[in-house]
Task: inverse folding
């Protein structure tokens, strides 16, 4: 069974592959050439089927030739926009993974050794007094809330309603 973290990682891997593919296309001259060839083949078939005057054909052909640079530019911009969208989505999923991992660490089940140490009294309840004496940057082994949750939790098999 997959965990939520596995699902996120699969999505990130798929996005990374898509991003790499889009970046390769962006710098691949064959991709851009194929796109231009596709449009020019369409123009070629339209020219062959044209039945109007030759002068009209010349005007239309000049118009088509003037549009080629814009077509190249639009192909480049579409591919670049695709790369940007995939990169943005990838950043969102990476952030989601970090948030999930942080949440999973914070909500991890209590360590059995810590539970036994709290129940036996080896780990004292943190207090304001010990907090004052503690040097900055030193974290107590357990938070006050966690200590109280563990010490007030019923033993396994006990009914909390009783």
Result:
């Amino acid at each position: 069974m997959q965990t939520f973290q596995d699902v996120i990682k699969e999505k990130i891997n798929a996005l990374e592959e898509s991003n790499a593919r889009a970046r390769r296309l962006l710098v691949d001259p064959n991709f851009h050439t194929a796109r231009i060839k596709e449009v020019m083949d369409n123009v070629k078939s339209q020219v062959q089927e044209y039945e109007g005057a030759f002068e009209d054909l010349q005007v239309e052909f000049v118009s088509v030739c003037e549009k080629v640079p814009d077509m190249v530019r639009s192909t480049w911009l579409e591919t670049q926009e695709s790369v940007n969208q995939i990169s943005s989505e990838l950043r969102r999923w990476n952030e989601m993974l970090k948030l999930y991992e942080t949440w999973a660490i914070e909500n991890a089940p209590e360590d059995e050794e810590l539970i036994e140490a709290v129940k036996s009294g080896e780990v004292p309840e943190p207090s304001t007094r010990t907090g004052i004496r503690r040097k900055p940057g030193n974290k107590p082994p357990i938070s006050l809330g966690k200590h109280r949750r563990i010490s007030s939790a019923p033993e396994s098999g006990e009914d909390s309603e009783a």
